[in-house]
Each structure stands twice: as structure tokens, then as C-alpha cells.
Design brief:
This protein is α/β, with parallel strands linked by helices and 874 residues long. 37% of the residues lie in helices and 13% in strands. This is Putative endonuclease Z1 domain-containing protein.
Length: 874
């Protein structure tokens, strides 16, 4: 514990830092100030100043642990983590550990990530400042937890006013208000002035403007992003006395900042009402840090940072920082549930494999729940399909299983999301409720056919996702859980969650079991507690941000991690998988460019997907089409057609012809008995790629993209090295491979299959990168980038294509893996390509032509947007 005198010197130096912009400068300012009042410093003063300097410098060193996952504009460092004198953060930390039961590692992560955000906003001790930043989280990942920690630390650091913009609906605003009150305000209630409550939005203040706050006090308002409350807030700010306004040190947190906050007017010179009001509020306050939180930042990073009149930066573009929150270890997100392709070609594992929790909904089942066209919605009456019956029965069993685990006093929820239209919510809920009522007696009868169906379903699901894989619980036998089914059915409630319904969810009451049917209000922000089963259709959803935000199943499932299941069409499942990769790419870009670029230098790249849009077109006026480069990358075919004999034979013949022609036009290399031809003309490789059929869901490995890049890279890729990968003890091919005759084939077993396509996960190994290098020299390391640089130093900037003949009868080398035998209809051909160049610098680029969205789909999107407003009650 430092003395009050020493604390005073430390505080003076900290306050001088914004002006001085260095510790030495701040010390000089403090020294001059004291000497001007008291004359030359005494030896005691000198001693105190030296001790204060040591404390400040020690704090300064700690800042190196921050800013691990951020890009930011350079500003003087001012925040170095929590201090012993802090009060709000220690109170919050103690509360979540002692009363909420959070584990220490989770709290440590929240501490580090929130300190990073605080270090990136402005120093509240400045006389005037304006900061804009963006915090990128994950859907349902605990962004609010980080937000509460940021608020607590900001108040400890000197901010005194918190404004939280919380969603478009009363439900979301109330949810946020309650959370902030319980976690932050009620820890030190005597230090807070509440300007809003869970029952009332911001209505202005009695005296017109903001009053002067007492020392060490703070105020907070949680405001809905609607015109009326924002107008009242702006009027209150405008009515505040100039001196009082100057004393306000405002942290404005925009929750779900990609919704409503971004200007979405049809013309760039026009501004939507909500966007205009937020910009006016931000402009009017002399000392403000604006921090947007979102899991879907697509619209925010596509804001034009330079207004059309060129006068300065757009007020809501995150010009000062973009930071990415870490992925929590126990988080169920898109990547964990759907898997994803690798972020870059140097990833150790070509694919991240998902948990086996997704169940397909057929087109026939979807047709029973969705009208053939939007125009027929009023006359369409849904029927409950077999897949929805399974989902509902599985949910009943999940609830019963959780009761056997002692969870009967916790909320349990099922989500059914088939349409944005209110009329369909009511009809789907009605048909489900009627079906359950009709089958209630049979479900409770041990010997009934439906009870046997339930048992078989439970045994199957328990086998696909064993409880011991994800939890410490023993498997729950059906014979045990069935004893709890009467309780579950008696407690089951159907709720319709939209702006028109009176039968809505209420988690403030004791433990409830809910089947929630809804639309757009479920698509953002609203947390469904104890969510275990989701049934999701919404086929006309085409925007990245809209689709990701609909993932209410993302989040935490403590003590029932083995139970969640999702029923959805296969195309939606694939879209979520693609979006998981795009999310990872954005975060990877931020990580790569940290400490080298500012947000105004850094253009976040967002990969486009066929038939989808990134966000609303009106939010993308500043977006530019950028191109795909293969410079410095390697690509490989890991998805192969193993059942279509015609295609298998065609691919083999294409490879055979390439090697025959390579033997005529290229030079046979003498490298360790490898089958390798040097300086083969580009035309032969292009001809091969036109004949060879690729099957890869990664959009950077398509025939059109590869050919466009190769043909546009003249003269860099005019000559190629062409090799054939053989395994010493491999089985000989049945067919000759061109001029090489019969070759020794590789063994590649299957990770999973989809239709005619087998996913082998990995074709190449790292050492294949140096396939065409002399063996008398060795690389210094074994990572992808080192091996590529080593190769280029020896062979120069020449591309390499490797042909991989694969044994049709390939088997797993380890019987304990999840792999299976290939069992193909013929020996297969895989390819791997290593491109020369710098992966960061690029070189030749290509634009990939994407499938257009049809007129019918555009109409469906417009109708959905109208329905979203209706269903949300706004």
C-alpha cells in the first residue's frame, strides 16, 4: 500500500501523460508545476518523484501484454491494467467468481480482453477527445460479459457516464438493462445514478440537461435504438450546461452496432434517422469514446471512412481501433458445430471438423412448413413433418435427461424458426401444440410405438455424440430418463416470440420448459436460456450477418454439452460452414496486420460466396471488389469423387496425357529417383486443369479461379515443374500413367463422405513443398513458410504441380481413428500446386465470377425485411 503523498505524485504524472505523450515529459510537467508553486524541490519531494516514476514505468511495461489481437491508431499509452485503488472492477470480479461461480480461467480471459479494450479507448483525463472503435466477438459468446468489465474498468479509470445503445426492441433493451444492473450497478449502488430502468427507456431528465456529478459517482443509461428515445437523449445533451457537458467523460457502447447504427439510406448523401441521431450525439459530446460491439462486423468495416465531401472521417467508422475478442474454450460456435475450411494454405490441418450435431431437413419436410411462395403465406396451413416430430421428441428426452442430472431447476428451451412472418409463427406453434396433445398419452405409455421410436432415437443420438466426449457425466439410459417424461410434458409451455404475441418467454420466473416459435426477434441479441434443440429453415436468408445472427444455438452449454442438436436443410448447414471460415479469415487478417496498420489503412477483406450477399446492399456502397491471389500459396484437392467411374477414368486420363506430353517438352530431373519433369510449358498444365474435375467447397480452389490466375500471370508462370508422388511400398496402379507406365500409389483413407464425394482431409505433407529441390541441402525448419522460402531459394520462382495417384482400396493406417476405407470405383488422382511468390505481397489477381441472386430471391429478401420490422414490433 503506497502512502497518500506518493499516490498524489503518481496521480499527477498520470494526469500529465496525455499532454506530454511520454513519461519523461509528464515528469517534467509535474516538476515545473510544483516548483512554480513551492520553489525548488526538497529532497523528500525528489525522493517521492523518483518512486512515482518507478511505479509509472512499471505500469508502462505491463502494456506490452495488451493489444495482442488489435489494429489501432498510434496514441500515447495511458492504461496499464487494474490498479489497487480500483473499486468497480474488483467488485465485478468478486461477484462473478463467488456468486456466479465462474471459473478462474474465464475471469482471467475477461480481465485481459477488457483491459485491451480500455487501453485502446481515449484517456478520460484529457480535456477533449473523440475515439471510435469496434470490438469483434462471436454470436452468443459473452460479449456482454466483456462489456460489463469494460464499463467497470472505464469508471475506475476516470469515465463517469455510460450510454449503452441496446437493440431495436424493448425485450433486448430490458435484457441488457437487467444484466448491467445486476453485474455492475448493484455491486456499488451508492456510486451510480440510473437514468433508465428495466421498465422504462430514457425519458429525459427533470432539470433538462445532465447535472454535475458528485466526485467518484457515475451515471448509466441503457437506450433502445429507436428514434424517440435517441431524440430525447440528444435533447438532454443539447440542454446540458456547457461546463457540465465538459465534465462528462462518456463511454458510449453500441451493442450490435451493425444493426440500425450503420447508415443504410439508399443514397450516400442521405442518412437514416437512427444513424443521424447517433452521429449527432457523438458529435455533440466533447469527451467521448464510441465503442461498437458486434459478432457480425461486415457492415461496420464497409462504412466509407471518407465522406463524399472529403471533409473528414465518417463519425461511426472505427478509425481508432478494431479488436477481436478471443474464442472462449467452452464456446459452441459456427466452427465447432459446422466445421470450416482452413483460413490459409499453411494451416496445420486442412479442415476443422465439426461435432456430429447437425440433422438434415429434407425438401419434402420443408415444404410442409413453408408456403410455396410468399404470396401464398396467408392461405398456407403448415403440417408437422417427421423431422420436426423427431426434434420435438428429442427435446422432451433432453429435458428428462437433464432432470436426471439434477437440472430440474434450470430453464430448458427448444427453438423453432421457420419463417419471418407472424401469421406463420402462430400456425406452426398451433400445429405443434395440437400434435403433442394428440400424442401425449402415447408418449407417456411405456409400450406404445411412439415410446419405442423415442427410445431408438435416444440410443442413436447418444451413440453419435457420447456424453463422455464432452462432459463428465455418465450416459443417461432411456430407462432412467423416461421416469421424468410426465414432469417434462406437464411443465412444457409453447411461446410465440414476436412483436404481436402475448404468449412470450419470461425467464424471470422459476425454471421453465419452453418451445419457442418465432422469427426476426429471435435473430439478434435475445438469449434463449438452456437452448438444446433448434429447428431452423429460413431458406431465403441470403446475408452473412443476418444468417449468423440467427444462430441462437451458439453460446455455452455447461453441463449439457452433449445434448444440443440442430435440424436444418443441408444448404443452410453448408452456408454456416462457409461463414465460419469467413469469420476466421477476418480475425486472421486483424492478427496478421496488428502493430503495422491503423484501421484507416487496413481494409478488411470479406470473401464473397455464390448466391449470398455480405450485408444489406445499402450498407455496401463503399465496398470494393478485391481479387484472389495465389502468390506464395499452396492448394490441394482433398475432396475427390470416388463413386463416378466416368469422372474417375477421365481424371486419370487427363493426368496420363499431361505426363506423356511433359516427357516430350520438359526435362527429366535426376533428384533421388523422383518422377519429375522440369520447365514444362504452361499450356500443358492449363490443358490438364481444364480436363481435370475439382471438387472442393473452398472457393479459392476452383478451376475457373486457378486458370484465371495462371493465365493472367504472364510471364511469371510460363514454365512449370511437374512431379508424380509415389509411395515406396505402394501398390502399383492398374492403369499406366502416361509415359511413366504403372506407378506406386499413395494411401489416403476417408474422413467423411457426402454423396459421391470423399473428404480425405489431407493430400499433401509439408515436405512435398520441396519435392523438386536437390536433396544435398536441408531446410532450417519444417514449417510451411520456411520450406517455401527454401524451395524458392533453390529452384527460383517456378510453380510446381504434383500428381498424386491414390489407391482405390486405401485403408486407415490406425484402426482407432475415425477414418474409413476409401473403397473407390477406381484409382483416383489428386493434385497439389505450390505457387511461387510472397503470400502477403500478392502479384497477379483474379476476380471470381459469382452466381447472381434471382429476382424471386430478391423479392423474398425484401418481404423478409418488411416482416422483420413487423415481427420485432418496431
Amino acid at each position: 500500500m503506497i502512502s497518500p503523498q506518493l499516490a498524489g505524485w503518481v496521480d499527477q504524472i498520470r494526469r500529465a501523460l496525455p499532454e506530454a505523450e511520454s513519461i519523461d515529459g509528464a515528469i517534467a510537467i509535474v516538476k515545473r508545476s510544483v516548483e512554480s508553486m513551492f520553489g525548488e524541490l526538497t529532497s523528500l519531494h525528489e525522493e517521492l518523484l523518483q518512486e512515482a516514476e518507478k511505479i509509472i514505468r512499471k505500469d508502462y511495461e505491463q502494456v506490452e501484454i495488451l493489444r495482442n489481437i488489435s489494429i489501432f491508431s498510434k496514441r500515447p499509452d495511458w492504461y496499464f491494467g487494474p490498479k489497487p485503488k480500483d473499486s468497480h472492477w474488483p467488485a465485478l470480479e468478486g461477484y462473478v467468481i463467488q456468486e456466479k461461480g465462474w471459473n478462474i480461467e474465464t475471469v482471467k480471459s475477461m480481465n485481459v480482453s477488457s483491459s485491451e479494450v480500455i487501453s485502446l479507448i481515449e484517456n478520460p483525463h484529457k480535456d477533449k477527445f473523440s475515439c471510435r472503435g469496434l470490438v469483434l466477438g462471436y454470436v452468443q459468446s459473452g460479449k456482454t460479459a466483456n462489456m460489463t468489465a469494460v464499463i467497470a474498468k472505464a469508471i475506475d479509470a476516470g469515465y463517469n457516464t455510460v450510454i449503452v445503445l441496446a437493440g431495436l426492441t424493448d425485450k433486448l433493451r430490458q435484457q441488457t438493462q437487467r444484466r448491467l444492473e445486476s453485474d455492475v450497478v448493484k455491486r456499488l449502488p451508492e456510486r451510480w445514478n440510473l437514468l433508465t430502468s428495466d421498465q422504462g427507456d430514457f425519458r429525459g431528465l427533470t432539470n433538462g440537461g445532465f447535472p454535475r456529478l458528485a466526485q467518484d459517482n457515475a451515471q448509466i443509461a441503457v437506450v433502445k435504438k429507436n428514434v424517440a428515445p435517441l431524440n430525447r437523449l440528444l435533447e438532454t445533451i443539447s440542454s446540458t450546461h456547457k461546463l457540465n457537458l465538459q465534465r462528462l467523460k462518456v463511454l458510449l457502447i453500441d451493442d450490435e452496432c451493425d444493426q440500425a447504427s450503420v447508415n443504410s439510406a439508399s443514397k450516400e448523401l442521405d442518412i437514416t434517422s437512427i444513424n443521424m441521431l447517433i452521429r449527432k450525439i457523438v458529435n455533440f459530446i466533447p469527451c467521448i469514446s464510441y465503442v461498437g460491439y458486434t459478432a457480425t462486423p461486415f457492415a461496420n468495416v464497409l462504412i466509407n471512412p471518407y465522406p463524399v465531401d472529403g471533409s473528414g472521417l465518417d463519425d461511426l467508422y472505427p478509425k481508432d481501433f478494431i479488436t477481436s475478442l478471443p474464442l472462449p474454450l467452452d464456446y459452441f460456435g459456427a466452427e465447432r458445430l459446422f466445421g470450416r475450411a482452413p483460413v490459409n494454405s499453411d494451416a496445420e490441418s486442412p479442415d476443422e471438423q465439426p461435432l456430429n450435431m447437425i440433422r438434415a431437413v429434407s425438401a419434402q419436410d420443408s415444404a410442409l412448413l413453408q408456403p410455396p411462395s410468399i404470396k401464398l403465406k396467408d392461405s398456407f396451413f403448415p403440417k408437422i413433418p417427421p423431422s420436426l416430430e423427431d426434434a420435438l421428441l428429442y427435446f422432451l428426452m433432453c429435458c428428462a435427461a437433464r432432470c436426471t442430472r439434477g437440472h430440474e431447476h434450470q430453464h430448458m428451451t427448444m427453438l423453432v424458426h421457420t419463417s419471418p412472418f407472424v401469421i406463420m409463427h402462430e400456425r406452426v406453434a398451433s400445429v405443434m401444440e395440437a400434435w403433442l396433445q394428440k400424442n401425449r398419452a402415447s408418449i407417456l405409455l411405456p409400450s406404445s410405438p411412439i415410446r419405442l421410436r423415442m427410445k431408438n432415437l435416444w440410443v442413436s443420438e447418444s451413440t453419435l455424440v457420447p456424453s463422455k466426449l464432452l462432459t463428465t457425466y455418465d450416459p443417461v439410459n432411456f430407462d432412467v430418463l423416461e421416469n421424468h417424461l410426465p414432469h417434462v410434458i406437464s411443465e412444457l409451455n409453447f411461446a410465440i416470440e414476436n412483436g404481436s404475441s402475448s404468449d412470450r418467454i419470461d425467464y424471470t420466473k422459476p425454471a421453465r420448459i419452453y418451445v419457442v416459435v418465432g422469427g426476426s426477434i429471435l435473430a439478434r441479441g435475445l438469449t434463449l436460456e438452456g437452448l438444446m434443440v433448434s429447428y431452423f429453415l429460413r431458406s431465403s436468408t441470403r446475408q452473412y450477418d443476418t444468417l449468423l445472427q440467427m444462430g441462437r444455438w451458439f453460446g455455452y452449454r455447461h453441463n449439457y454439452e452433449d445434448l444440443p442438436r440442430l435440424w436444418m436443410p443441408k444448404d443452410l448447414s453448408k452456408s454456416f460452414r462457409d461463414l465460419a471460415a469467413i469469420e476466421a479469415e477476418i480475425r486472421d487478417d486483424i492478427s496478421q496486420y496488428k502493430n503495422r496498420m491503423t484501421p484507416t489503412d487496413f481494409a478488411v477483406r470479406i470473401r464473397t460466396l455464390p448466391g449470398m450477399t455480405i450485408t444489406a446492399a445499402t450498407k455496401m456502397r463503399a465496398a470494393k471488389s478485391c481479387d484472389l491471389s495465389y502468390s506464395g500459396k499452396h492448394v490441394q484437392s482433398i475432396r475427390l469423387n470416388y463413386l463416378n467411374e466416368k469422372e474417375i477414368h477421365s481424371n486419370w486420363q487427363a493426368a496420363a496425357e499431361l505426363l506423356t506430353q511433359a516427357s516430350q517438352f520438359g526435362d527429366l530431373a535426376d533428384i533421388d529417383q523422383r518422377k519429375l519433369y522440369l520447365e514444362v510449358p504452361q499450356a500443358l498444365v492449363v490443358k490438364f486443369l481444364r480436363s481435370y474435375t475439382l471438387h472442393d467447397s473452398r472457393h479459392d480452389l476452383g478451376t475457373r479461379a486457378l486458370l484465371a490466375y495462371i493465365e493472367n500471370s504472364v510471364p511469371a508462370l510460363m514454365k512449370w515443374n511437374v512431379g508424380v508422388f509415389e509411395t515406396v511400398n505402394g501398390q502399383s496402379s492398374k492403369l499406366p500413367l502416361g509415359a511413366l507406365g504403372h506407378v506406386k500409389m499413395a494411401n489416403r483413407s476417408v474422413l467423411d463422405t457426402s454423396g459421391e464425394i470423399a473428404n480425405i482431409k489431407a493430400l499433401m505433407s509439408r515436405r512435398d513443398v520441396i519435392f523438386d529441390c536437390p536433396t544435398d541441402q536441408k531446410p532450417t525448419a519444417d514449417d510451411w513458410s520456411t520450406l517455401k522460402a527454401f524451395r524458392e531459394s533453390l529452384v527460383g520462382e517456378i510453380p510446381l504441380i504434383i500428381i498424386y495417384p491414390i489407391n482405390r482400396n486405401s485403408k486407415p493406417t490406425d484402426p482407432n481413428t475415425h477414418r474409413s476405407a476409401l473403397n473407390a470405383q477406381g484409382d483416383l488422382i489428386g493434385i497439389g500446386i505450390i505457387f511461387p511468390g510472397d503470400e502477403q505481397a500478392g502479384g497477379g489477381y483474379v476476380s471470381v465470377s459469382l452466381d447472381a441472386i434471382s429476382a424471386d430471391e430478391l423479392e423474398a429478401i425484401e418481404q423478409e425485411e418488411l416482416a422483420q420490422s413487423e415481427a420485432a414490433g418496431v
